[in-house]
Amino acid sequence: MTGYCADEAAIDGFRAAFMAGESDLAVLMQAGYQTWLKDAQSDAEHQEGYAEHAEVNAREFTEDGDRWPR
Hints:
By secondary structure, this protein is mostly helical. Helices cover 63% and strands 6% of the residues. Strands 1-2 form a two-stranded antiparallel sheet.
């Protein structure tokens, strides 16, 4: 695990498959990957909407990600 919050999604998929009786490690890992991928795609869609949110609220940022003007 990486320590990133999305790890929980992978664990959830792994756990669900395991609790459903799956014991093949490759299948368990694939189940974890699928739930992680779904959450990662959802998060990416949410992040894309942030540009519009920032523009509507007149928030500007430098290339380094700092708010501008400070």
